[in-house]
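Two proteins were folded this term; both appear here.
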Amino acid sequence: MIATDDHRPGPVCLDGASAGIWTPLPARIVDVRQETFNTKTYRLRFVDDEARTKFRFQPGQFNMLYAPGVGEAAISISSDPDRTDELDHTIRVAGSVTRAIERLEIGAIVGVRGPFGAGWPVGDMEG
């Protein structure tokens, strides 16, 4: 079987966004769960209703998370693709961006670009 990306969700761009996929969409940290001593899961909710409506992803895809004033890093999406109101990202501190995100608290805003990557066709693996 050859995998195709015919139905792969692509990066979300809001109507009227001049920079398209290069513009991070603001998302608020609504929950933080400590997984290990250096790993936390961050639950994010897009600030913009349109972004929440449009954003879809497949297992295995990732987002670029932007820490204001620091930069961005590729982080896998760790939430259920059927739950579309919020996104989870499990992050291990490994550099300046992940360290900056690790210092943020509930209510802080990060930037999100994505989803990127081919994803994993879980539905094709049934049986």
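Next, the second protein.
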Amino acid sequence: MPHDRKRLVVLGLDGLPLTLAKKLAASGRLPNLDRLLAIDVASIEAELPELSPVNWTSFLTAAGPGRHGIFGFVGIDPASYRLGPVDASAIAAPTLMERATAAGLVAKMVNIPCAAPVTPLNGAIIAGFPETDFDRAVYPPELAQNLRLAGYRIEADTSLGAADFDGLARSLRATLASRRAALEMLWAGGDFDLFMLVATETDRLFHFFFPAVAHSEHQLHGAVLDLLADWDKLIGLVLDRYEALPGPKRFIALADHGFVELETEFDLNVWLASKGLLKTQPGAADEYDARIVPHHTAAFALDPGRIYINIKERFARGVFHEHVAERLANELRDELLTVTHEGKPVFEAIHLRGEIYSGPQVRRAPDVVCVPRQGISLTAKYNRTELTGHYGRFGCHSPFDALWCDSEAARPARTSDAGAVVAAYFNLPEPKEQAWISSAS
């Protein structure tokens, strides 16, 4: 193993809040999580919206959404008003992997969410959710073939959700085994400068079984801890490998957002429709079948709290000019802040895009970004009629309390700042800003 290079190992623990991590470590069942928390621990905030594509991209570009241009899993075509998935080809800022390659460094990356289609780099990468195609998810191509032969699973089957804990647990154990296999393949020989592995199993578990994780009296709590013990072994494997590396070296662990127990979902499109601001044609086939009637729509929303005003300068059949839209955005903020659920405010904050984003991609940002009170999950479905309710999930994202751990005790404020810590460690040159590109919002 080469001794003349400094290495950085990054362990991503998707959706893991610091408060819950400490509670789980105190159970005595997760000794490697306890090891990790003993290194140096703090919390960071997620960039908004508090979604994985936004925040893993923010970390991997060391930039906020106003620079990298990713605001969610789904975007809307400004000409057709159709919704569609957003993938890594829409990232408008260079990634740490690209910058490392340009600097002659080797990066090896395992299960990186929202990183497909992957592009060539000096090293290897395995993209994660939501990609399912190995040809788009893996570089180099020969690694894809090895992963197929090993039975590698990119993502767990969560289709039955909370209805089948045993099935979800089996599927999550299979993805954990896949992460271990990929770690063994890519770590061999220590030929890397940057190594990153993301474990997404916590996010999947928390969405459907957060009460069982958080409450020791829950009937599934013991079974959940048994599953997390397998997850803990992966943490231990990474820590053992890191500790065996020669110096100089650095270890970072982080989550992309926090998590809390779900109180209710709140659908912004139902709210906008109730105010006469959104008009859709009936008969939506699914939650993404927007069927927006543009000439009768002032505003519409996308998950998980993004409101877009139907602006002439942005959308093919917009109804407002920008100066009118600014007034409407302020009116929306004022009214949303008065909305309550069971006597308590629904929203912690309502931001206008210029208040929280900066950079050349701000024109792609939502006009209004809603931050819910803890425990409320904001949705924006196109086939719902109920403003609030439960739809099979029992945990939801939070922008707060995301885990951060660093062997050199840096204290970044947000996920984008955490990425800047990595860039600074390798003295990567600052990238040039890219101009605004017109694509799906």
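Residues 233 and 290 are 43 Å apart (CA to CA). Confidence is low (pLDDT under 50) at residues 436-440. These notes refer to the second protein only.
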